[in-house]
Specification:
Elements lengths: L2 H36 L5 E7 L5 E7 L4 H4 L8 H8 L7 H7 L3 E3 L25 E3 L1 H5 L3 H6 L4 H22 L3 H13 L1
Parallel strand pairs: 3-4
Antiparallel strand pairs: 1-2
Length: about 190
């Protein structure tokens, strides 16, 4: 990614994060309040994720599982939590991450410690860009939860099948970066 491409991407991110927060900031706050009342917990989920240059940052989401329930091996997700996840409403607070500069609208999804921070060789190129709210792997694995639920051992399937495919897609995204591809992934996120 050239310096000009980075600048264009950042201007796009800041402009549309501001627009998004102005237009739906009230809705995000309302959903946080509803989550707090119906699901319990804080209403907002915060977690450390691996970002650009392998630096940890705090990602923000609307809470979809009660914190005590999340500690279980197979946590129960309420109807509200399922709805929020299905329509990706839980991801809306990441507009704040984009505005802060810890994320971009498009890029590899930020992973928890134990995945992205252990990338080796050519795969480390993924960490040269900011993680995104959406991106090539996100669009391809839009039904990841359902895919994992159908597996006998979801954890192994994720590590041996899904994770390597995500890495391959994200390497290609960084190597072949074009701003118009970002627009394409944003469009595919909303309209497919």
């Amino acid at each position: 990614m050239t310096k000009t491409e980075k600048n264009i991407k950042r201007v796009f991110d800041v402009f549309f994060a501001c627009v998004g927060l102005v237009l739906i900031g009230w809705f995000i706050l309302l959903m946080i309040l509803i989550s707090k009342i119906v699901i319990g917990g804080n209403g907002i989920f915060k977690q450390k994720r691996v970002g650009q240059h392998a630096k940890l940052f705090t990602i923000y989401k609307i809470e979809t599982i009660h914190p005590e329930e999340a500690k279980k091996e197979t946590p129960h997700i309420s109807r509200l939590g399922t709805y929020i996840r299905k329509y990706k409403i839980d991801e809306f607070p990441q507009l704040w991450n984009v505005l802060q500069g810890t994320m971009s609208f498009v890029g590899p999804r930020p992973d928890i410690v134990g995945f992205a921070d252990q990338l080796e060789g050519e795969a480390k190129i993924i960490l040269t860009v900011k993680p995104g709210i959406t991106g090539p792997a996100t669009v391809h694995f839009r039904n990841e939860e359902a895919i994992l639920k159908a597996q006998e051992n979801p954890e192994i399937y994720n590590k041996e099948v899904i994770w390597p495919q995500k890495v391959a897609r994200n390497i290609r995204y960084v190597k072949e970066y074009r701003f118009m591809k970002d627009i394409h992934y944003i469009f595919k996120t909303f309209f497919s």
